[in-house]
Design a protein that fits this description.
The complex is a heterotrimer of chains A (about 325), B (about 280) and C (about 425).
Chain A: H1 25-53, H2 72-79, H3 81-113, H4 119-131, H5 134-145, H6 151-158, H7 173-197, H8 202-210, H9 215-244, H10 247-252, H11 264-274, H12 278-312
Helix pairs in contact in A: 1-12, 2-12, 3-7, 3-9, 4-7, 7-9, 8-9, 9-12, 11-12
Chain B: H1 2-34, H2 38-44, H3 58-61, H4 67-98, H5 104-113, H6 119-133, H7 139-163, H8 167-175, H9 180-191, H10 193-209, H11 212-217, H12 226-231, H13 241-275
Helix pairs in contact in B: 1-13, 4-7, 4-10, 7-10, 7-13, 8-9, 10-13
Chain C: H1 4-22, E1 35-40, H2 49-57, H3 60-63, E2 67-72, H4 76-88, E3 95-99, H5 100-108, E4 132-133, E5 136-137, E6 140-145, E7 147-152, H6 153-159, H7 168-180, E8 184-187, H8 195-201, H9 203-207, H10 224-238, H11 248-256, E9 260-266, H12 267-273, E10 284-287, E11 296-304, H13 311-322, H14 324-334, H15 347-352, H16 356-365, E12 367-368, H17 378-395, H18 399-412
Parallel strand pairs in C: 1-2, 1-3, 8-9, 11-12
Antiparallel strand pairs in C: 3-11, 4-5, 6-11, 7-9, 7-10
Helix pairs in contact in C: 2-14, 6-7, 13-14, 17-18
Amino acid sequence: MSHTTLDGAPPTSPRPGARRRRPGELLGYAFIAPAVLYLAVFLLVPLVQGIAMSFTDAKLINPTGGEPVGFDNYARTLGADRFWNSLLATLLYTAATVTGTLALGTAAAVLVNRAFRGRALVRGLLTFPYAMPTVAVALIFAWMYNQSNGVFNRGLGVLGVGETGWLTDPDWGMASVVAATVWKVFPFVMLVVLAALQSVNAELYEAARIDGADALSTFRSVVLPHLAPTLRIVALLMTIWSIRRFEIIFLLTGGGPVERTNTLVINVYRTAFSDQELGLAATVGALGLLVSLTVTCVFLLVERRENKREETS
Amino acid sequence: MKLKRIVARLLVSTALLAFALFAGFPVYWMVNTALTSDTELYKTGQDWWPHAERLPGVPGSLADVPIGGWLLNSGFIAFGTTMLSLLLAVLGAYALSRYRFHGKGAAAFLLFSTQMLPEALLVVPLFALFGTLGLLNGLGGLVLANTAFAMPVALFIVKSAIDKIPYEIEESARVDGCPRYGQLTQIVLPLVTPSIAAAAVVTFFEGWNEFLFANTFLTDSEKWPASVGLATFVGQYTTPLSSVMAAAFLFSLPAIVFFVLMQRRIVSGLTAGAVKG
Amino acid sequence: MISPSARRAFLAVMTAGALALTACSSGGDEGDGTGTVTFGNWQWLETGRGEAMWDAVTEFEDAEPDISLEKSETPFAQYADKLNTEIGAGAGPDVFVVLDRQFATLAEAGLLEPLDDAVADANLNATNDNLNIDGEQLGVTWEQVSYALLGNKNVLEEAGIEQMPTTVEELIAAGEQAEAAGFDGFAVRHQMNEYNGWAYDFPSWTYGYGGSWSDGENLTVDSEENIAGVSAYKEVFDAGIVPVGDDASTFRSKFKENQLAMIIDNSGTALSLTSDSQLTGQDLVSAPLPFPEPGAHQKLVLAVNANSDNKEAAKKFVSWVVSEEGQSTVRPSLGASVLATDVPIDPEFAEANPWAETYIELGATNRSGLPDGFETEADPIMRAVLEQVERVITEGLDPAEAMREAQAALEAD
């Protein structure tokens, strides 16, 4: 199996036809230009402006009228507890979401990869959450989490357990938001892992089985190594998506209770819109982007090392 | 040995059941809530089993929620996003797959890095940009904004499909005098139709679901897509929750149906595309 | 890596984009006093009442056939954020309703059009005085809303509560009585994710104990009075009579469904609760806030966007609203609030809504919820206060310590 690295470098093993690619630079530019120019106008320019804003004291009601303030915003942001709490919330949210989705997604994929009656139905059912629009997810989870009338507390009430403030108790807010996120996103991991599983060579299974390995050790020794590259990239995607995830947190808790779910992105939104401090908001956003970039770079380094190791082994 | 297998099967079945319950329950509860009156929700308690007999009354109760217009707007945004994204993505994918050129790595990284950008950071500069271009309060502007985030994913999906097509096919066509553009439309595209379909579903629902930009850019409630319309019920004055849930379910239904139908295609597209970028 | 040529291309695109942006912020035009005027207000989306209010204001089109009005609609939760974004980008509705704390910021930034000529003939009452900034009338009162204790008669009767509480102790006792009868006792907003609404109705508690956010010179967030107000709020929550986690829409639904006994809310809510005939005006009972002192009022301000390209027409509209004709036209849909002029309450309305009287009486004594001398800082102040209040009710933080922390955080900025 071949896998290209993220920066578009040549694959480790030749693909059909890849060797014969012709230089034809100009045509290549012509084909890629629309996409790149599009992103430059609609993402890169706003991004550069956003970062430029982080060095000014721009306010929401006068976004272009900010005076340059150098690194003041950075000093203020890094000197305040709120940023560090926010970073902590982001890391917690990301770690929990990535772990949760990878564990559940992989488990689900392994389960539905086996042949059984009604498999198509179950597979379809398991993709429901991913298909559901986030706003709808937020509406139904907010209702299920409702303290006095929600189904969770009513269910617990039947079991004789008292009410929990799923979205209002500072000890539970983050867990509740993570649970809703994991529910929504795990099918993505499942689908991707499923596709990778389907390319596991049946002979490998057989070989392992003849060796007398049981299911678990077959999984560990044959399937997991095969899945590793896929899992690594899914983990990266899940991580950078979690760092920037906005809607479900915004709609469920808006950053509360007591800032426990005030992740960097929510913090950016609140600083920009509620506090109207665009300069400060852009600073938090730029620092958040730095976190994502760091994660990606670390990932690329690990990926390169792993690829080398696989090549030499 | 036999006992061990039975136990193993039982365990697997239980796990499957647990997963099905976990994934399906919120959707079930949404339907159940849509069939429950406010009095039951807030006073007497919601039944565990849905009142299916109330189904005929749902269209009437939806009169509180202008869901029809919202869905049309969502559909327009989604359709526009899909068309524009695919156009840019197919061309770009072809370039990344078939050409060598300087800055190719940078272009690929630019495309990938879009997945890191927080919308909350971009929304204010984009708002100003759209104000200049006269794109605020219009569905067209939302198509443009959504495409920026949806197109790269589509591009990776299509690129990986093109990667798998042997180059010899195009080469023989070229020898026959078929121009480069013709090779793309007449030879490559038909071969990657499944992946384009997968990319179409993914971009369609990115546009269908999008909330933040629509919420910030639109001022006229007649232009609201369903995501913004439904979000107005969070914390707003008193609309029966059953109507809101019924509307939310209608909003989810097309996405669920399409995803289930296209599941296999999406799997192959995603693995090849988003994952192996 | 990026090749030099690609880098140059990128730079060119970025520069072009940046240039296009700087060209955008042009001022508005005066307009010739005709055409379309967009009117921004979250109230258009309020169940029942929004439509009536829109019908009332569009009667202006009969008076000025050359001008047509168009709604700009944003739900309350996002209204302030969105209006600021729009105005900052040189856009936004021509005329709009804003909360007084937002008004102060917009006024200071010079984003509001002076209305002196437009309102010269009107009989403006004293509620408009603090909308006159440095000799310019930058807004007029749309409505000044009071807060009262509002009870659901059906629930109160079933629970055997005969009198509306007049103190916090009585409120707790009545709430417990309602809980014992299977109802929820009492509800108010209490979560940061409803910040805009919570900041709107929380000051009544601290003002009710004689507090205020400043003395005109310095912030007094940690004053004894404010601490007493927060303590009272905490007592009510500690008593277990509040359905914790219910946002305003949920507890208002419960109130409508005869499941909740009492709320502290404004007259707009009372109107909205009775708008779909599930409850009538006769089902509501109102009483002064159960605090020793009068509470706070909030003012909604009507103002004209200085960026508007149809200011003349927008000002004509404002003139009409504050005219005798306009005031009596909008009066019924604004219910029991104090308006820009002393227009009497609609007799028919008063009869159908006996609860309205309390609100009108309270309007005479309650004070502005804005921090005196810190009007433009109202949002950061409320945010700092409410963040601490949330900790008081969820983490059991001591009210005195909470207010001291809020004060310290504000002073550090």
